[in-house]
Amino acid sequence: MSEYPSFEREPSVEADPIKALAPILQTALDAVVVIRADGKIVAWNGAAEQTFGWSSREALGVEMGALIVPEQHRQAHALGMQRYNESGQARVVGQRIEITALTRTGQEIPVELSINKMRSGDEILFIGFLRNISERKRGEEDLQRRARQAELLFEITQLAAETESFEDALHSCLKAICSITGWPVGHAFVLGKGAERELLPTSIWYEAVLGTSKALQEATSGIRFSEGVGLPGIVLATGEPIWMSDAEHHPDFRRKGKGFRAAFGFPIKSEGQVIAVLEFFTTAVSSPDTELMLTVRTLGEQLGRVMERKRTEEHQRLLLHELNHRVKNTLAIVQGLAAQTFKGDAADPSSKQAFEGRLAALAEAHDLLTGANWEAASLRDVVERSSRGCGADPTRVKISGPDLWLQPKAAVSLSMALHELCTNAVKYGAFSTEAGSVSVSWKMIKNEGAPHIVLRWEESGGPPVSPPLRQGFGTRMIERALASELGGSAKLEFPTSGARCIITAPLPTDADPAPPD
Q1: What's the pLDDT tens digit per position in 59-76?
Q2: Fold identical between 17-132 and 377-506?
Q3: Would you tell me which CATH number, out of the four given (1.20.5.170, 2.60.40.1730, 3.30.450.40, 3.30.110.170), belongs to the domain 138-312?
């Protein structure tokens, strides 16, 4: 990256000023444009030719404002030149600003601009250094989009995971998306259970202001959408998000005249199949938001997995409830049989009481166990799946540590953190080069008499690293959220050899290295 020259004093050039500037014009890596006080170009280097597409011969003598200044900035540019000519005041001289400039093709590109001035006899020259920062801006926008997507995915997945039912999870998703996008109304359609693929309306709505979508809800309550029909039906047929900038004038929108203009919908998928469609509405015409559409496409697939798990859990709860009911009936039958068995003068009352007490205790234990969640996850599986999930080559991941089984909450939190570390390594760290590798190891220790796990993520063989200039979403999640969820600590370090993360968390006092029975 080249440095812009700066002048502590306004330099004076008695000889030909352009000749004096020749070394700068020839060697500068950035576009250099020199203009007189009347705004006309007197120097235009090779980098300027490459950046803006005009040759030096074409640019010389042309008023700069008409050549490379976009329409919306031309008045300010003209006023600035006029102010300097009348009062000698130049507000942007000696500063570095970001602005846009025009190329020969009419494309508007972002540039970083630095202006200095110099005197040549009685004449003042302005020297502008312009750096095309399009690539940097694209990178920043991509990072912002990814951060927004990650935060949205994390927030909604957490909300969905914490709710008790499929319907509650859908409502949480509607509320979160409306909150983030600023759109006031959201609704969920679910796929019917019949042979025909048909979307059925639900009572699951979210309104930022209660009562604003009453007419829309009434129009929706009695309608069903088959594939390709209406906004939800198009989403069902294509499996892709759909945006209607002005639904009132869109031929495929079936609920016109209800007070809403723009609408978009996206599918929730499970195993590649649409299982629900979420739709959102706003009162103003709205152009498609490409970033949002990319985000909800990913979100729909992630939510589908969560929703399917919710449905499975509900089905399991129903089965357990039915099983519990049947076992109780069986126990009642056994109790009756026992009563019949011990009937008569030969029956020993103390034996009968003991038998019935044991049966009652068995029933209570059955209630307690069926009401608990007996799920657990292998730590080794969590590590392996996290590395595979981000696309890392498994042969470049060294895993070592005893078999440990994590409770569901700890497994989810650790999976999120490991996925973030792995993704970062793919983009910037050890996995971004062919020679890099990652070591993930863990061990159990005693800390003040209580068992703890210490997990180390250590990268090597990648490009030299340095601490980030600002704390991003991933770092906050690892150091704050992970520590909070696990009740321990997470520390990120950035030695030159590669990123390192050390996670320490308590384990239940009865932690068993073997899987649960």
Answers
A1: 999 999 899 999 988 888
A2: no
A3: 3.30.450.40
